[in-house]
Amino acid sequence: MKTPTELRRADGTPVRVLVVDDESTLAELMSMALRMEGWEIRTAGTGAEAVRVAREFRPDVVVLDVMLPDFSGLEVLRRMRAGAPHLPVLFLTAKDAVEDRIAGLTAGGDDYVTKPFSLEEVALRLRALLRRAHGVSGSQGSKLVVGDLTLDEDSREVHRSGESIPLTATEFELLRFLMRNPRRVLSKAQILDRVWSYDFGGQANIVELYISYLRKKIDADREPMIHTMRGAGYVLKPAS
Fold this sequence. Notes:
Layout: E1 16-20, H1 24-35, E2 40-44, H2 47-57, E3 61-65, H3 73-83, E4 89-93, H4 98-106, E5 111-114, H5 119-133, E6 143-146, E7 149-152, E8 157-160, E9 163-164, H6 169-179, H7 188-196, H8 205-219, E10 226-229, E11 233-236
Parallel strand pairs: 1-2, 1-3, 3-4, 4-5
Antiparallel strand pairs: 6-7, 7-8, 8-9, 10-11
Helix pairs in contact: 1-5, 2-3, 6-7, 6-8
């Protein structure tokens, strides 16, 4: 029996979810399941429709099929993120190859599920994405500081040496975990468990991928703060 903690927007209104899939039966099944979470749902069957609906509906999270009849889900993601750079996206893919799964994440997706999947799994992944994106946590909100790097858990703003650094929801959660454990070596397993909150199909290379994203933003043209401890994991510490 499932009784999850209800997630709502900051203003108390229902969470908004956009489901994008050209298989109308599957889209309707997902919509029915997600409405049982108390969420408001919109659907789209093409990439062009998805971009239009996203602009009007302003969803909190998107379920996005990689394969669409007009253009790919990766292109839909690019267009959506142009107007909503932090919008969390869960990719749906019918492909099993690891490189195909990772392609969507490399393009900026936050998570994926492979068809066929259970509707409960989709809901589980979306709840995790929403909590990460909207900062649901047990803390009362605080500012984390490591060296010249600051992270505000209330405003979800990140700065290094006073310069603003935009992050996706997953990048933010990964950085927050690193900053809450400065100078401590964190294994890939620990990061997977804390940031993704479930067994990511054994694909620990997703951690490497997101660490590389953070390095490009946090350490670009600066003295590095994120370090790889070969065979052990990763550590964040102030630049010397």
